Amino acid sequence: MGLSTSDKETSATKAVTYSLSSLSNLAKMLPTGVVFVFQILSNVISHNGDCGKGNKVLVGICLGILGIVCFVLSFSDTFTDSDGKVHYGIATKSGIATFGSGKSKVKPSNVSNYKLTLKDFLVAGLAVLLFAVVSLTDKNVVQCLYPSAQSRINKWIQALPVVVSAATGAVFVLFPSNRQGISHPVATK
User: For the sheet containing 76-80, what is the strand order?
Assistant: First the structure.
């Protein structure tokens, strides 16, 4: 007494749909844009790992600023108003604070979907952690900030990003965020 062919197809379709939805949510929550910007800047500001005191300060400032950007972008969201116009904003306790629309009082029809939750802070913290691990284990950053430790921590440098990425990815899949960010297509909520 097994499943009928249509039940198997329905189960398979549901599994594929869930998997693709989870991957889509994962892509929205990972700090890929911030890591990309850092990868571009790290070669220049770290002088390809051969840096002096000024370069070390610049690397630290860049890491700090991009970490803050990563945190703040975790709270960004978008919505479409009744006229079909897309609005961008940041989630707050009372809903979404829009910017760049000219009409600061524009609100989505379902304001409660845009309020800050504890999950938002979890996602933001994990995104910053992932950014920190990826950026602090970058070859140029390691050579610049802690060159004498490079040979002793080489195995950690190789393994840590993979382990942290897998762990944060699992958390992101298990607890998907409803935030769409400002760089992803707008979907209805």
Answer: 76-80, 86-92, 95-99
